[in-house]
C-alpha cells in the first residue's frame, strides 16, 4: 500500500435484479474503502456478489441504491458518457477469458490500447513488465493460455490505469500457470503502485493481498488484513 488515501468509497451499496418475490439481491448495503496502491482480494462463493461489486466499481454496472465514488467521480450518479470516460481514463480490466484478437501479435494487441490512451506505455514496455519481452511478435495461437492472459494484463496496464480490476484471471488456467499470472499482477501493483482488486474462489490467492474481503449473500462477511504482505518480496505458496 502506498498511502492511506481512500480512492474507492462505497456506502450502503445495493444491487437488485428483478423485483417482487423473484428479486435477486446481489449486494445488500456494502460499505467499503479501498486505498491508493492497495491490493485487495475478493473471496466468496458464486452468487456472493463479488462480480457485481467489481462491475460497479469499474463503471460497468449501476447500483440500485447507495453511493460508490472513485476519487472525485460519483459513479452511482454518472451517466453513460461519464462512465465511459472514467473507464477509459482510469480503469484497466482483466477477465477470465482473454478477449484478444488472434490475427494480431502480442505487440499489436497491446498497441490497440496504447493508440487510444493519453500517456501510454510502449507495448514493448508493458509486455516486458509481465515477462513477455521475448514474445512480442508471436500470434495468440503460438502462446500458451498463461501467456495469453499476461498479454491481456499488459494490454490493461499499457494505458497506465489508476486501478486494475481482475475477475477470476486464473479461472481458466492450471495452478502453476495461474501462479505466473498472479505474480505478473502483483508486480504491476508493486512496481507501478496500481490499485488492484482481484476476484477469486481460490483461498490461497489471498496470501498476496493487503486485505482479503470475504463476501457472502451480498455482504462483506469478513475482512482479513495481511500484515506480512508488505514485507514479502514475492508471492509465496
Report the average pLDDT across residues: 90
CATH class of the domain at 37-59 and 91-231 reads Alpha Beta
- The CATH superfamily of the domain at 37-59 and 91-231 is identified as P-loop containing nucleotide triphosphate hydrolases
Biggest sheet architecture: 6 strands, mixed
Strand order of the largest sheet: 6-7-8-3-9-10
Outline, from the CA principal axes? Answer: globular
- The helicity comes to 25-40%
Strand fraction equals: 25-35%
What is the CA–CA distance across the termini? 21 Å
Q: What's the number of helices?
A: 6
Identify low-pLDDT runs. Answer: 233-237
- Helix/strand order, N-terminal first: EEEHEEHEHHHEHEEE
Number of strands: 10
The CATH architecture of the domain at 37-59 and 91-231 comes to 3-Layer(aba) Sandwich
The name of the CATH topology of the domain at 37-59 and 91-231 is Rossmann fold
Oligomer: single chain
The gyration radius over C-alpha positions equals 17 Å
Task: Please give a structural write-up.
The chain is of the alpha/beta class and about 240 residues long. It has a domain at about 35-60 and about 90-230: Rossmann fold (3-Layer(aba) Sandwich), CATH 3.40.50. Helix content is about 30%, strand content about 25%. The protein is built from six helices and ten strands. It has helices spanning about 50-55, 80-90, 105-115, 125-130, 145-155, 175-190, and strands spanning about 5-15, 25-35, 40-45, 65-70, 75, 90-95, 165, 195-200, 210-215, 220-225. A hairpin with a 6-residue loop joins strand 1 (about 5-15) and strand 2 (about 25-35). The protein is globular, with a radius of gyration of 17 Å. The two termini are about 20 Å apart. Mean pLDDT is about 90; it is low at about 235.
